[in-house]
């Protein structure tokens, strides 16, 4: 499917060029749903490097710990890819959007720094996470030589997935209940900024594809979203199972308990499915769900920082 999308992009005629001489095809000018007054805030937080988080830092539960460790191990290389992708568009952006890309880049650099430290702690507990990092790099190597719009659409898909997970973490306290407090704060801080910049990459996409037809824009980002999310989610499951095997689980037991954790209790994947699926619909924009109150809630004093479950 990825090869087909790439071929479509490479041979597609400019949207404004009509098949009928002298007749100009109508090109929709896409509008952003990002609130005009919304700004990205760089929270340069450095978490306690000497805090003795336990091996099973999430509720003394190896399954929950393995899932979040799998996600964390994938982040540094993925976030570097996001930064590199946006850099290829930065020169052509209007000033406000270019400034937001700069803030986004700083946020992602900070996320990488803290998750590198987090991943070192995971390794210090005896887990081998190098294969996870190598797997992410192998997946990203497939983007080499693709049209830059292809890589931007991949970034949209992964940023949307990150924002949906992040919203779940902040809205429902059950997902981090019982977790080591420093580790939980790393995830809440990261989640807050993922929600805050959830529309930035999509707005760059709207600007970069402003001369495309609405159909070409929709087809490209929806197909890539379905393809990339499936691959990324599948790889995270594979890698979490691998971490559980390092804890002595059989493969069948690891798979059974991980699926129960993701889809039954607490069941984050089940609860977030329709919110994720919004990216497959025409007219999608991340800020059609306004989460600014959620961001402010987390930025308030800690006692008030967690919203009640819906």
TrEMBL record:
InterPro entries the UniProt entry points to: UCP07580 (IPR016516)
Keyword Transmembrane helix: no
Keyword set includes Hydrolase: yes
Highest taxon, organism lineage: Bacteria
Keywords: Hydrolase
Protein name in UniProt: Metal-dependent hydrolase
Pfam families: Metal_hydrol (PF10118)
Native source species: Parerythrobacter lacustris
Molecular function terms from GO: hydrolase activity
Skewed-composition ranges (Basic and acidic residues): 1-14
Region ranges (Disordered): 1-35
């Amino acid at each position: 499917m990825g090869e087909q999308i790439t071929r479509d992009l490479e041979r597609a005629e400019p949207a404004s060029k009509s098949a009928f001489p002298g007749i100009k095809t109508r090109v929709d000018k896409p509008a952003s749903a990002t609130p005009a007054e919304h700004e990205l805030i760089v929270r340069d937080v450095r978490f306690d490097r000497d805090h003795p988080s336990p091996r099973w830092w999430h509720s003394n539960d190896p399954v929950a710990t393995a899932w979040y460790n799998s996600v964390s191990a994938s982040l540094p290389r993925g976030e570097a890819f996001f930064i590199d992708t946006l850099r290829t568009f930065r020169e052509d952006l209007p000033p406000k959007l270019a400034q937001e890309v700069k803030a986004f880049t700083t946020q992602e650099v900070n996320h990488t720094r803290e998750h590198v430290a987090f991943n070192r702690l995971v390794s210090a507990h005896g887990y081998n996470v190098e294969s996870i990092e190598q797997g992410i790099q192998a997946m990203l190597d497939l983007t080499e030589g693709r049209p830059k719009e292809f890589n931007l659409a991949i970034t949209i898909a992964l940023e949307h997935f990150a924002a949906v997970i992040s919203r779940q973490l902040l809205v429902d306290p059950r997902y981090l209940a019982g977790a080591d407090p420093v580790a939980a704060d790393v995830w809440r801080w990261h989640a807050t900024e993922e929600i805050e910049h959830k529309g930035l990459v999509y707005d760059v996409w709207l600007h970069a594809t402003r001369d495309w037809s609405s159909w070409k824009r929709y087809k490209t980002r929806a197909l890539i979203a379905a393809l990339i999310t499936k691959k990324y989610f599948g790889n995270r499951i594979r890698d979490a199972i691998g971490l559980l095997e390092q804890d002595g689980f059989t493969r069948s037991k690891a798979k059974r308990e991980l699926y129960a954790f993701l889809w039954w209790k607490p069941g984050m994947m089940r609860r977030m499915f329709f919110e994720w699926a919004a990216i497959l619909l025409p007219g999608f924009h991340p800020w059609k769900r306004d989460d600014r109150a959620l961001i402010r809630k987390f930025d308030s004093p800690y006692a008030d920082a967690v919203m009640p479950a819906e």
